[in-house]
Specification:
Blueprint (H helix, E strand, L loop, with lengths): L1 E5 L9 H5 L3 E5 L5 H7 L5 E4 L7 H6 L5 E4 L9 H7 L2 E4 L5 H17 L1 H9 L17 E5 L3 H12 L3 E5 L5 H7 L2 E2 L2 H7 L2 E4 L13 H5 L5 E5 L8 H9 L3 E6 L19 E3 L8 H19 L15 H24 L4 E10 L7 H16 L9 H7 L3 E7 L7 E9 L3 E9 L3 E7 L2 E5 L3 E9 L4 H11 L4 E8 L5 E8 L5 H8 L4 E9 L1
Parallel strand pairs: 1-2, 1-3, 3-4, 4-5, 6-7, 6-9, 7-8, 9-10, 10-11, 11-12, 13-14
Antiparallel strand pairs: 13-15, 15-16, 16-17, 17-18, 19-21, 19-22, 20-21
Helix pairs in contact: 5-7, 13-14, 14-15
The structure holds nicotinamide-adenine-dinucleotide and 3-phosphoglyceric acid.
């Protein structure tokens, strides 16, 4: 039974799939302190959070069974990603579910700042009928500068057009073609800063975007411009903004986010009549909260059930076309890694993976992670190693990883070859997917074979002589070990050969020793592939 801790207020409807799952128990405990979380996290397999819970290295250290932290939203700046990666904890987010909601909040803020809605409301409910103090401006024909043309920025741009605004956008990934398609002007930060009547930021907070709008930008802005931040506190320098408002450069500002949340009671924004604020409400609609909770719950279930998942933040994303090619090989790759590790004596120093055929044409990094996971799991335990931390663990142990690609494959459409080098020896296993047959191991060291990679296998190396197969079979039968399938591989008649037997249960150690002692037999090893 998997245990999932929900540590922030997350939509009940959105997590229903998790609650209904027969193999999952969900505990809702919002508002716990770091110490309280450290005390209980040890019993949980997954954690669901929004932006309030700070998922620190301490919490992850205590989360001995923690496999995944699911962020019901976009920003993961409250999660220590470095610590998660080191511990093999997958961090996923729900990047699409709150895009429109946050875009709409941006408009609510932009309209509110243009027409002084909050200030006018306060006076009106206070009994004053003040029609002189709140002369606003139209959005129409104004230049809107958008920094960050990702999901939210792009939606803002689309809607701003309907208001008759001229949109100038900047994003390091914005191309001329895309800008043209969106009907916006591709600009630089400096162009936007100097020309915008309204500005809105939609970037993440990174070292590069921190204070991207600061004192020197405010100095060159159009007098009377208005600025909105519904992305992350710290993108716009708060102190510099207050100074720009006081100097009359900025006529109004609308902030949903703060450098430190919640802001201190004496935060200068809270007493400035030209700055309006909301308490990080960008994503707070019924629809968005349901969407993000559904998205994150589905992926958490997939991870717990060891199924393919998406939206991992501490792993590079896999484009859909590449995933289509690689996904069928993930399981085979892991098994090849495991097989090779069980075959190889001594500490592994180098893992060489050769991809040939169609596989050589795509970015095979994700598949390499599975292969390395298979190799390392044999020694470190499958609980310790996963596709998030496998490369990191290999590096930590100075295991060199070499990737080779051959664009043609002699006998198979695709072939994955895993070679392991230790101080003592170098061993090799190759596998492919055969149409109609599924995954197959097709080579062990220099011997061609055809073995289904699964269950309990016995690998026997021997001299190719009459009677050997019978002797091994008799010995296993006498010890009540049933043989399901058997494969022999040899290069030349009478030369060195291998035998791969698939058996119905684990083979006792003494039986393996007896096999190895049979005449003309060099070695017998049990290989278990789960
Ligand atoms: N207020 C809220 O409640 C709320 C809700 C959702 C998202 N957000 C925040 O809004 C921001 C945008 O979210 P999104 O879903 O659109 O993300 P996104 O990843 O789709 O878009 C971010 C864009 O910023 C761009 N960018 C990065 N560095 C930049 C730079 N130096 N200059 C200009 N652009 C740069 C990226 O290339 C990307 O296109 C994030 O910070 C997210 O956390 C806030
Ligand atoms: O990054 C996000 O998704 C937003 O900042 C929303 O945060 P929240 O889930 O805490 O409202």
């Amino acid at each position: 039974m998997f245990k999932v801790l929900v540590s922030d207020p997350i939509s009940d409807l959105g997590i229903q799939k998790l609650v209904d799952a027969e193999d999952v128990v969900v505990d809702k405990k919002p508002g716990l302190s770091e110490d309280e979380l450290v005390a209980i996290i040890g019993e949980y397999d997954a954690m669901l959070v929004r932006s309030q819970t700070r998922v620190t290295a301490r919490i992850m250290e205590a989360g001995k069974q923690l496999k995944v932290v699911g962020r019901a939203g976009v920003g993961v700046d409250n999660i220590d990603l470095e610590a998660a990666t080191q511990r093999g904890i997958i961090v996923i987010n729900a990047p699409d579910g709150n895009t429109i909601t946050t875009c709409e909040h941006t408009f609510a803020m932009m309209m509110a700042v243009a027409r002084h809605i909050p200030q006018a409301y306060l006076k009106t409910v206070g009994g004053e009928w003040d029609r002189k103090s709140f002369l606003g401006v139209e959005l129409r024909n104004k230049i809107l500068g958008v920094l960050g043309m990702g999901r939210i920025g792009s939606e803002v741009a689309k809607r701003a057009k309907a208001f008759g605004m001229e949109i100038w956008g900047y994003d390091p990934f914005l191309t001329e073609e895309r800008a043209e398609k969106l009907g916006i002007r591709l600009s630089s930060v400096d162009d936007i800063v100097r020309n915008a009547d309204f500005m809105t930021v939609h970037t993440p907070l990174t070292p590069e975007t921190r204070h991207i709008i600061g004192a020197s930008q405010f100095e060159v802005m159009k007098k009377g411009m208005r600025i909105v931040n519904c992305a992350r506190g710290g993108i716009i320098d708060e102190i510099a903004l207050v100074a720009a408002v006081d100097k009359g450069i900025v006529a109004g500002a609308a902030f949903d986010v703060f450098e430190s949340e919640p802001p201190a009671a004496d935060h200068p924004f809270l007493s400035n009549p030209k700055i309006i604020v909301t308490p990080h409400l960008g994503a707070s609609t019924v629809e968005a909260q349901e969407n993000v909770a559904i998205d994150v719950s589905e992926q958490v279930l997939n991870i717990l059930r060891d199924k393919p998942f998406s939206n991992a933040v501490n792993m590079p994303p896999i484009p859909a076309n590449v995933l289509n090619i690689l996904q069928p090989y993930f399981n085979l790759g892991e098994k090849l890694g495991s097989f090779a590790a069980q075959l190889t004596e001594g500490a592994i120093q180098e893992i060489t993976v050769n991809y040939s055929g169609e596989l050589a044409e795509v970015d095979t990094q994700p598949l390499t992670r599975y292969i390395v996971r298979g190799v390392l799991s044999h020694h470190l335990g499958s609980e310790m190693v996963n596709v998030v931390n496998s490369m990191h663990l290999a590096k930590e142990r100075s295991v060199n990883i070499v990737i080779q690609k051959s664009h043609t494959s002699r006998d198979f459409t695709n072939l994955v070859t895993v070679s392991l080098r230790s101080k003592q020896e170098e061993r090799l296993v190759a596998g492919t997917l055969l149409t109609g047959y599924g995954p197959r191991i097709v080579q062990i060291d220099k011997f061609p074979v055809d073995v289904a990679p699964g269950g309990n296998l016995i690998l026997v190396s021997h001299n190719d002589k009459p009677g050997i197969i019978g002797r091994v079979g008799t010995l296993l039968g006498t010890n009540d070990v049933n043989i399901a399938t058997m494969q022999v591989g040899r290069k030349i008649i009478g030369g060195a050969a291998i035998m791969v037997l698939s058996v119905d249960k684990a083979v006792p150690k003494d039986v393996l020793s007896q096999i190895a002692e049979l005449p003309d037999l060099n070695n017998a090893k049990e290989i278990i592939l789960y």
